[in-house]
Structures are given as C-alpha cells and as structure tokens.
Structures
1.
Amino acid sequence: MILDLDIGNTLSKWRLKDAESSEIRSRGAVWTREEWRPGADIPDLDVVEAVRISSVARAAVLDETVTLLRRQVRHVFVAHSQPEALGVVNGYEEPGRLGVDRWMGALAGYQLAGGCCAVDCGSAITIDFVLPGGVHLGGFIIPGLRLMKESLKLGTRNVAIDPESEADALLEPGRRTVDAVNHGIYMAAVSAINRIYSEVCDQQGISLPMLLTGGDARVVSRGVQVPHAVWPDMVYGGLEASFPLTFAERAGKMSGAPRVPEPVSLEKIRAGLAFSMLL
Ligand SMILES: Nc1ncnc2c1ncn2[C@@H]1O[C@H](COP(=O)(O)OP(=O)(O)O)[C@@H](O)[C@H]1O
Ligand SMILES: CC(C)(COP(=O)(O)O)[C@@H](O)C(=O)NCCC(=O)O
Ligand SMILES: [K+]
C-alpha cells in the first residue's frame, strides 16, 4: 500500500492507494496543528510500504511526521519545489520558495492538460499558470474563504457557506451579518479567479484549461464561469508524477484525474474582459 500525504496549513489529508490495483482504499484528514495520535483518523501504517509527502506546514511538522513514518515505513519520499521537473520550468525567482502544493498542482496539471491554470482553494487560494511548453509563469495568492471570514472577526466563523448553495443565491445582498459575510467572501474569491484567469490569458494570448482543487473547490466551482474541472486529488497527482511507484504511474496515469475541460476561445475571454471594463 502507498500512503500519500498532503499536509496543508489547515488539514493534513491522506489516502491509501493499492500499489497493485491502483485503487484508492481509504482516505482521511486530521487537523495539521494537532498531533497524530492513536484513535484519530489516521491510516494503519502496518500495511504501508511507501509514503509520498507534500507539506507546506512548519518545518517542525514535516520533520516530526517524517521521523514517525521512517520508524515504520521503508520508503519515504518528500516533495520539494524544484527549478524544473517533468517538463515544467518553475517561474519563481527563487524556485524553492514556491509552495510545494502549488508545484505539485502545476506538475499534475501539466501532465494532464499541458498548459493550464491550476487553482487550489484551501487556507489560501492560489492561482498558478503553466503555458504549453512548460513555462510556469508564477501565480497569485489570496486568503481562502475561511481566512477571509475569520479576518473580519464578526463572530461568523462557525457558519460556513452551505456547499449546496446555488451561486445565484450567493450573489444576493445579505440581510444578516452571516449572509453579508458569506456572500461577500464568496464573491471576492470567485471574481478574483474569473478576472485573474481572463487577464493572464489575455496577456499571454492563449486560452488555458482550468483545474480546481482544495477543500473549497466544490463550492467555488459553482461561481467560476470559466470552463474548468474539479480535481480533488490534484496535489496527489503531482506526487504520483514526481515519485511514480506503480506500473500505471510510470505510464503517466494519475488516480482520479478528470477529463480536461475544453477552454472557451480567446476572443470570448477578451470580449468578456472588454465588457467588464465598460461597466
Ligand atoms: N470539513 C471541513 N473541515 C475543514 N475545512 C473545510 C471542510 N470542508 C471545507 N473546508 C474548507 O477547506 C479549507 C481547507 O482546505 P484544504 O484544501 O484542506 O486547505 P489546506 O491545504 O490549506 O489545509 C478550509 O479553510 C475550509 O474553508
Ligand atoms: C500559499 C500557501 C500558503 C498555500 O497553502 P495552503 O492554502 O494549501 O495551505 C502555500 O503554498 C505556501 O506556503 N507557499 C509558500 C509561499 C509561496 O508559494 O509563494
Ligand atoms: K491552497
């Protein structure tokens, strides 16, 4: 069994993948700031022969996790942002400083779709661009939905946006604090994603497929007008591509990869931008 770990600022997500059948056998998540303790929702390490890790948490969290895992698991692979990998050239001036989850997303997106816009809606929302040919342009970072909400300190943090809400309902002006805040942060996030995508495609003269991941991907997806696919396992896809262990992975297959969305024409993107400028 292969254990894939995606340690974010809020949640540490894991999945167990059967190395023979490529099936995902189980999944879970624990709060990143809490210790891994028996009885918590953690995988059974007895069945694990290899671990692959992407972590953006404090160095101490990664160190502790690796120390704990090395005691029981033979192969432990830790991903790092590199200047270049798998045909993608990291756009950061200091490539090692790009969050490794973003790097994993860029690698997975490129392997799946070629040029792409990879959006990760977690504690932060990150929007990264890779051109066909593999040039990573860099990206954008904004606070995620929960951070935006908490920063207002209006006591609304425990009332999350209902993931089933229609985007139209979230467009309405709120008539109580919790709705005003939820609708506001939602609009801030989806407008930024729509606009940033259009601006960069316009600048680069190319229309790119968009891929969405992270804890808030489903709800954000409802408000993103750009054609896109939700890929919950995108960071894991980067781990599979970086450390291929199975036959399928060596052949470039990533578990749970969606169909590549067909982007709209550049003309349409530019017309949309021109229209929004007129208003
Ligand atoms: N059950 C949940 N528990 C915690 N956060 C959730 C849950 N469902 C959705 N979220 C949202 O997902 C975000 C965490 O997403 P995730 O992609 O795991 O973030 P990170 O990678 O930064 O840890 C939270 O900030 C919150 O807005
Ligand atoms: C931007 C991030 C905080 C996003 O982390 P997440 O929301 O997935 O927990 C993370 O990718 C990070 O710490 N990046 C380092 C800074 C950078 O990418 O420029
Ligand atoms: K993120």
2.
Amino acid sequence: MTSLTLPDIAAQGNQQTLPLDWVGMCGIALPLLIEGRNVAAYADAGVSLDDGTSRGIHMSRLYLALETFEQQTLSLQLLHDTLGQFLASHAELSTRAYLRLTFDHLLKRPALISPLAGWKRYPVSLDARLENEMFHVELSVHIPYSSTCPCSAALARQLIQGQFDKDFADKPLTRDEVRQWLGSSAGIVATPHSQRSLAKLRVRLADGDIRLGELIDAAEAALGTAVQTAVKRADEQAFALANGQNLMFCEDAARRLHQALHRLDWVAGFNVRVEHAESLHAHDAVAESRHHWPTRG
Ligand SMILES: Nc1nc2c(ncn2[C@@H]2O[C@H](COP(=O)(O)OP(=O)(O)OP(=O)(O)O)[C@@H](O)[C@H]2O)c(=O)[nH]1
C-alpha cells in the first residue's frame, strides 16, 4: 500500500504573528457520568494559541482528550487532568486551557402531601480553566422557585378588611356567617400576585467533590417554595399555604441565598442573581449578591 503524506496545515507557519486567547471547539456532544447516571452534555474545549507564528492548534487532540468522560465519574480531578492533557498535547503552543460542560441535571422531587414524585430539571454549566498552573472551576446552576409579593399580600389583606367592614357594618356577627364569608370569593376579594422566579447561582469550587445535589438542596431549602413536579389538589393547597407563609421580594431571596451559600465551606466564592418574572409588570425584579467574586463577570 502506498503511504500518502497528509498535508498538515495547522503545523504551518503563520505570516501574521498574532497570538489568540481562545481556540477550540464548541458544542461537542459528550456523555458524562454523574452520581451513577449517564447525562447528555455539550462540551466547549479550547486552549490559548500563544505561539502567534503557528497557524493553528490541533483540534483532534482536544477532542480525543475528552474520551475519558465516558468512563470516569465527573470530578474536579478529571477536569484538572483533562485540561493538563490539553496543554501537554499543545506544548510550545499554549499556556491556558479551557473546558465548559453544559447539561441538564434531573432530580426526582416528592410532592408536598400526596405520595407522588416527579423529575425536575436544573440547567448546569461547569467552567474549568488551567492558567499558569492555577486550576479554577466555576459551577453554575439555575433553580426555579415561586415567590409571592409581600407588598401585594398586605394590600390584598387591606382590601379584605375593607370588604369585611362593608359587609358586616350593620349586622351582628355570627361565627357561621363569618366562616361562610371567609370561604367565599365575595369575602376574599383580593389575592396577592405570585411569580415563577429563577435563582442563577455561580459558585467557585474549592477542593473536593462537585456537590451539585447539595448545592441545589441548600438553595431550595433557603428559598422555601421550590416549584413542584407531580401535583394533586392536596399538594396545591399545601403549596398555597407555603407561599402565604413565605412572602418575599427579590431582595429577600438574594439575601437568603447569600447566607445559605456562605455556610457551605466547599464554596470558595459565589455570585447569586435572582429574577422574579413579575406578573404585576411586564419586566422582572432582579437582585444580585456576591462574595469573594470579581465585581464584573
Ligand atoms: N486548527 C484548526 N483545525 C481545523 C479547523 N477546522 C477544521 N479543522 C480540522 O481539524 C482536524 C484535526 O486537526 P489536527 O488535530 O491537527 O489533526 P492531525 O494533524 O491529524 O493530528 P495530530 O497529528 O495530532 O496533529 C484537521 O483536519 C483540521 O483541518 C480550524 O478552524 N482550525
């Protein structure tokens, strides 16, 4: 068989000497192993091209370095080793390596009262980089929850009081009549507005495991009214009660999350952003809080 030499354009010299900050591939399909389950993820893999005289990087070497994710459980060590491999396969060319993994993490959540359960989807991204031998990992997760406006609740209560004064102005009060009135929409004339809300958490991981489930649980416990999966009427009623006891502005939600993340000793720094998709307005109410986090970014 004649052996054919394949042209290697990437290895050619470059006429314009210009280093590049990031070169690689985006949207690579990649199965991950997380908590014993296979998860369909996408990877963006890249390196810096510091040697501006080289035309290109070797994309296939980054691609092939990702193969281990299929067999090994996702861990900080695996991310670190992979980035190390990116750089080792680009000696003389690159000093910085980057890997972003994005996937949906599914958790089974029980109903509040009924014996039902269902799956909840949490979009996740993991950004790892190796720069000057320093390894950094940022975990980002989006957590939906429900929030009821405390101001709207107070305004609604005032209207209900006014209606009570009107309806019972000249009447002697009987327990039964009041009870009936409380159960009628003619009595409870106003309801506060609630909104589906979103907490966007970004945390810098110190050494240890990627404790994704623990992070989500801590955030949902702090928020109090996570959105539900399987719901019967009994669950909906319990949810209405939980919301009535858990009124919050976006500022309240951001402060609660700040305190909850601060308690996690494996979190080296964080950025919290909450978005309340208001039903009062066509715009959102938003609050942010950070700790050991650069102001921008
Ligand atoms: N650098 C670079 N490569 C690209 C690009 N688009 C496609 N490729 C292709 O990616 C393929 C893999 O490149 P390399 O990793 O250098 O492949 P290779 O030379 O067979 O592998 P090595 O011998 O390990 O260098 C080549 O066929 C490139 O043409 C691009 O924009 N930049």
